[in-house]
């Protein structure tokens, strides 16, 4: 480092030189050496760049390089992200994962092996044949289950999710669709007839009551009215008292 020190420093430098850049940093900033060709200059940053980790000291905060296989690190011995071709495990970068673990090429980490898990079997379905539950004696019944945990690359594969077996049922005739429709039609007609019968009886009763009312009105019209007897006025002639 040249002995001459510049006074007008910029970019967070507390002291600097024209040849070596920053010599010290302002409080809370990190000092790091950057290589430009064959030359190194000092710079002051608010955080350490990728491939470096920061260490704070009473007189200076410095950025130091991570290990060669580590892309980012928390300390020199604890990596947080590995370079290409390495897998992260417990802060270390490994070319091959330990036994019992597998390499995750998506996260580039060593993770535990996950085996497939399936749910319990469902109850057996009704015995059917060609989609029908009648008209046969021997058919098939089915039960299913779901996959609740899919396996990782080295995990145990998933089992079958459905099973089928032969079944025997008491043979019964299938009700024809036309017959069922006919029965429904007959019920509808029967109900309609009963309603029609009730309506006819009600109309008949109304007609009889109306006819009786009309007969009474006609009878009252044809019968002569009784005349009232005239009121007899009392004899008010004067009595002759001369004789």
List the topology elements.
Blueprint: E1 13-17, E2 21-25, E3 30-36, E4 39-45, E5 52-56, E6 61-65, E7 70-75, E8 78-82, E9 87-89, E10 92-94, E11 101-104, E12 109-112, E13 117-118, E14 138-144, E15 147-149, E16 162-168, H1 177-222
Antiparallel strand pairs: 1-2, 3-4, 5-6, 7-8, 9-10, 11-12, 13-15, 14-16
Give a verbal description of the structure.
It is a single chain. Mean pLDDT is 82; it is low at 239-243. With 243 residues, the chain is of the alpha+beta class. It starts with 12 loop residues before the first strand and ends in a 21-residue tail after the last helix. Helices cover 19% and strands 32% of the residues. The chain contains 1 helix and 16 strands. Among the domains are: 7-65, Hormone Receptor, Insulin-like Growth Factor Receptor 1, Chain A, domain 2 (Hormone Receptor, Insulin-like Growth Factor Receptor 1, Chain A domain 2); 73-112, Hormone Receptor, Insulin-like Growth Factor Receptor 1, Chain A, domain 2 (Hormone Receptor, Insulin-like Growth Factor Receptor 1, Chain A domain 2, Ribbon); 117-168, TSP-1 type 1 repeat (Single Sheet). The strands form 8 sheets. Strands 1-2 form a two-stranded antiparallel ribbon. Strands 3-4 form a two-stranded antiparallel sheet. The protein has one helix at residues 177-222; strands spanning 13-17, 21-25, 30-36, 39-45, 52-56, 61-65, 70-75, 78-82, 87-89, 92-94, 101-104, 109-112, 117-118, 138-144, 147-149, 162-168.
């Amino acid at each position: 480092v040249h002995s001459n020190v510049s006074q007008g420093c910029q970019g967070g430098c507390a002291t600097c030189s024209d040849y070596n850049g920053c010599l010290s940093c302002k409080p809370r900033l990190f000092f790091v050496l950057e290589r430009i060709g064959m030359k190194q200059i000092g710079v002051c940053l608010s955080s350490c760049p990728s491939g470096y980790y920061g260490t704070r000291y009473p007189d200076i905060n410095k950025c130091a390089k991570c290990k060669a296989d580590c892309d980012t690190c928390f300390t020199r011995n604890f990596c947080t992200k590995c370079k290409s071709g390495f897998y992260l495990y417990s802060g270390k970068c490994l070319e091959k994962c330990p036994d019992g673990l597998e390499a995750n090429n998506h996260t580039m980490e060593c993770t535990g092996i996950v085996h497939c898990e399936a749910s319990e079997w469902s109850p057996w379905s009704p015995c059917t044949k060609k989609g029908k539950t009648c008209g046969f004696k021997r058919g098939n019944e089915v039960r299913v289950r779901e996959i609740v945990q899919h396996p990782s690359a080295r995990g145990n594969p998933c089992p079958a999710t459905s099973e089928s077996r032969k079944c025997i049922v008491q043979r019964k005739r299938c009700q024809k669709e036309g017959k069922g429709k006919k029965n429904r039609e007959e019920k509808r007609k029967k109900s309609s007839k009963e309603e029609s019968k009730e309506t006819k009886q009600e109309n008949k009763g109304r007609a009889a009551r109306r006819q009786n009312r009309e007969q009474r009105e006609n009878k009252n019209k044809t019968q002569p009215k009784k005349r009232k007897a005239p009121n007899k006025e009392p004899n008010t002639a004067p009595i002759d008292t001369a004789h």
